[in-house]
Amino acid sequence: MSKVRDNIWILPFIGSILTAISLFTPAAVNFTGISQVLLFMDGFYVTFGPMTGPSFGFINIPILIIIGIICTISILICTIIMFISSLTHRKKDIPGSWLALSIILIGVTIYYIAGTEMGYMMYLVLRGYPPSSFWGYNVPSFAVIAPFITSGISIVAFIIGKSSGKEEVEIEPISKEELHVKKEETPVSQQISQRVPTEDAQAVKFCPACGEKIPHAQAQFCPSCGYDLKQEE
User: Fold this and answer.
1) Residues 24-64: pLDDT tens digits?
2) CB proximity list for 232: less than 8 A, separation 6 or greater
3) Alpha carbons 2 and 15: distance in angstroms, whole number
């Protein structure tokens, strides 16, 4: 599972490339009997027709242009962040930004689809025309499909990366016998030095009468009871 975890960054990397390419492709396509209209997310359109020839420009519906520009900028920012994040997290912990960016991409794309539908209806009503469906005349194209693909593979990468990182390591308990052997094998780094008393150890005697300590070897009498120590020699 470690190899899968190390290479899982490739999925959001590919997804970010797909979304970046989709920004240069149409979001909706309209096929008529005499022409084909390619509508991009930012409101730019290109028309191909055998009778009129190719033409291009921006649609004359301001609300659709505003919604499209907002969604284009949002998707572009998410794509750049995901691209950088996928490269900077190779063989590293899986970032939560992959999941967050995927949710944002899905939300922005849904907002564009719903916003263009509602905005188109409002535009027709304000101009005195009967309301009509934007997506009833237009077919969704790669620009609104790629964010869902990118979000899907990024969420899968996040789930796989998090699940593969939960490998448990079993720790065997150490018995008392093994612990005792390890203590014996451990070298002593420093020797503990004991303080040597200034008095001569052989000079320390005790009075046989009272048990008082005799501090000097040359003492003839006990300083406590006056016992004659010469009798012991």
Assistant:
1) 999 999 887 778 899 999 999 999 877 667 889 999 999 99
2) 208
3) 22
Q: In angstroms, rounded to a whole number, what is the distance separating the alpha carbons of residues 141 and 160? A: 29
Q: CA 233, CA 229: separation in Å to the nearest integer?
A: 7
| Residues in contact with 59: Cβ distance below 8 Å, sequence separation at least 6, in sequence order | 39, 43, 45, 65
- Give the pTM: 0.67
Give phi and psi for 89, each to the nearest 5.
-115, 30
What lies within 8 Å, CB to CB, of 152 at 6+ separation is 102
Main-chain phi, psi angles of 180, to 5 degrees: -65, -40
181 Cβ partners below 8 Å, 6+ apart? none
Residue with tokens 């900028």, as numbered in its chain: 73
Residue ranges with strand state E in the chain: 28-31, 36-39, 44-48, 55-58, 139-140, 205-206, 213-214
